[in-house]
Design goal:
The protein is of the alpha+beta class and 254 residues long. It has eleven helices and eight strands. A hairpin with a 2-residue loop joins strand 3 and strand 4. It is globular, with a radius of gyration of 19 Å.
Length: 254
């Protein structure tokens, strides 16, 4: 991902992954409590539960990897829940500095895509913490991401464990509660649709497992920052929400 000649502000929405980013040129900033905080050269950006605002300097260039949190856990000896949800974490705080420096310098000198891929693969293989994903976690994550369940109690019953145990399991291996992940997955599905009227939104709320449309609208605005009607009527947003150029901040101004 790269920026051209001007400063650019854009919004990052929850998609249920953790980002590993290496800034090769320029500077990036994250808005936290109404202050711009400069991002480290190599950083992990934890699971986002609400839309976050970023700013890129002219000439900004970054290589980013998106990891499911349970796989990131296999690169860390600390619990993934250690990561702050609305701030960036310098990778040097989580791994040996010499390994992070090796990754940064080799990506900086890479001239071809194959060199980038080989560098990332070597780094991941070398630093892979020899563990395995908990089978209960893998099963429950598959249920949530496939849309088979949208209720923690039903998921706990299906796995024959308590809701408390389920929350503890997610805290250790995923970093957020199963309820939070269910909500994120709901919105991932919602953001890909094109419901542009009240009737369509009512149907969408039902499809996502909400009891009523007002609850869906409230959670959508609280998470994304604007109402679903405003979101779905803006073609810049509904076209491709993974493309940061289409998520410029002015789209979210009331």
């Amino acid at each position: 991902m790269q920026n051209q000649n001007n400063y650019l502000e854009y919004s990052c929405v929850p998609i249920g992954t953790v980002g590993l980013s290496i800034i090769l040129n320029g500077e990036g900033f994250l808005n936290y409590q109404n202050e711009w905080r400069k991002l480290p050269r190599v950083f992990i950006y934890g699971l986002v539960s609400k839309t976050q605002i970023h700013k890129l300097s002219p000439g900004y260039k970054v290589i980013g990897l998106r990891l499911k949190p349970e796989f990131l856990q296999l690169l860390m000896k600390e619990k993934v829940s250690f990561l702050p949800k609305r701030q960036a974490t310098d990778l040097c705080d989580l791994m040996p500095k010499e390994e992070v420096t090796w990754l940064y310098e080799n990506l900086l000198s890479a001239n071809e895509e194959i060199q980038i891929v080989n560098t990332v693969n070597t780094f991941l293989k070398k630093n892979y913490f020899k563990g395995t994903i908990d089978k209960k976690v893998a099963y429950s994550l598959n249920k949530i991401r496939s849309g088979e369940v949208n209720n923690v109690e039903l998921l706990s019953k299906d796995m024959n464990v308590s809701s408390t145990y389920m929350r503890s399991l997610f805290h250790r291996h995923v970093g957020i509660t199963p309820k939070e992940l269910i909500k994120i997955e709901r919105f991932r599905k919602a953001l890909k649709t094109r419901r542009q009227n009240e009737e369509g939104l009512a149907g969408l709320a039902y499809d996502l497992g909400y009891y009523d449309q007002s609850h869906f609208i409230h959670e959508f605005k609280n998470t994304i920052g604007i109402t679903p009607l405003k979101y779905f009527s803006n073609n810049k947003l509904t076209y491709d929400f993974y493309n940061f150029q289409r998520w410029k901040l002015d789209s979210f101004v009331p």
